[in-house]
Structures are given as structure tokens and as C-alpha cells.
């Protein structure tokens, strides 16, 4: 039990000046830890700060991302949204049958919310596999291939998903390579390998 663990009692004393451990202090400790998880040293962050230049491939990927070329920005935003998400609930054309899915409609009771899930951040997307709400895609390449050729029409698709009507983006292999190159600029290796956030054991 955490209340009897000397390791935690010592840490709570350092943080709060008491060896008492209760749900209020646990909540505060977790909340403070989560607030410390700030990622801001990706390649793209450094590019925006004028510290580095992106490669030609990464720049082409950015242009595809932020235009109708790949049409990613309607859901994931642009450099104006540094978390690379609109935080909206959207249906991204993964499925036609929504039976048994724990989607937004379960909460809202609105049938038009079938297949909707909150759009995730793309920061450090390289490290967050598997992808989609159910982990159906194991790699970024699979995700890009889905958006390129695998979109499925249904009455619940978000109207901003302009590529759904023709099954996907239909980008060239080079376009997909450039788009992936851009997405990888959102990886913050300094944050990912920061020992402060490693397993304490």
C-alpha cells in the first residue's frame, strides 16, 4: 500500500512537507507531473524558432499537410495550433459498420456522432504506435496508406473530410515519403529521452 511505502513517504515529504499520503496529495502530485510534460524541442519547433532549416522533402510534406494536397490540417490544424490537433471529435472514414464501437455517439446519444473520436495530437507521433482509437495500424506507413487509398464512405463522415468521396488522397509514393518526413519533424527526442520522465525503478 502506497501509504506504508517508505520510498513514497520520503518523496511526499520532499514535495509537500508531510509523510501523510492521501488522495488529495496524490491528485496534486499527478497533476503537477502531467503539467511538467512539455514538449517543445522537436525539429519543427526549432525550425519555427529560426534555429534550423527543414529539408526540401520535409518542406514539401508541410505544404501537403497544410493544404488540400493531403488535407491533414482540417483535423490536425497547422503551426497555429502547436499541439497539431483541433481537439474536435471527428469521423475519419475508417469504418462503415459502427456496431459495438465505443464512439462519441455513446456519450451524446446523437446518431450522427457514430465513428467520431477526439482528434489526437501529432506531437511525437513517431512514438505513439499503434494508431487509431483501436490500434488497428501498427506503423505510420499504414496510417498514410489508409488516408491515401482506404477511406470508407458513410453517412457520418465529417464534411471536412474532402477526400472521402474518392477513397483517399491518392498521393504519389514521393508525396507520401515527403509527408512522413514532415511528420517525423514533430518528434522531440530530448523530451522522449528525458530521464526525469523515465521509470524510477
Protein model, in words:
- This protein is mainly alpha-helical and 201 residues long.
- The protein has 9 helices and 2 strands; from the N terminus they run αααααβαβααα.
- The protein has helices spanning 6-16, 23-36, 43-48, 56-65, 73-76, 104-108, 140-149, 173-184, 189-192, and strands at 89-90, 117-118.
- The chain has a two-stranded antiparallel sheet.
- 20% of the residues are buried.
- The mean pLDDT is 94.
Topology:
Layout: H1 6-16, H2 23-36, H3 43-48, H4 56-65, H5 73-76, E1 89-90, H6 104-108, E2 117-118, H7 140-149, H8 173-184, H9 189-192
Antiparallel strand pairs: 1-2
Helix pairs in contact: 4-8
Q: On the 0-100 scale, what is the average pLDDT?
A: 94
Report the principal-axis shape.
globular
- Cα-atom Rg, whole angstroms? 21 Å
Could you tell me the number of beta strands? Answer: 2
Considering DSSP H and I runs of 4 or more, what fraction of the residues is helical?
Answer: 25-40%
User: The biggest beta sheet, please?
Assistant: 2 strands, antiparallel
* Low-pLDDT ranges: none
User: Secondary-structure element sequence?
Assistant: HHHHHEHEHHH
Strand order, biggest sheet?
A: 1-2
> What structural category do the secondary elements indicate?
mainly alpha
Q: In whole angstroms, how far apart are the ends?
A: 17 Å
Number of helices: 9
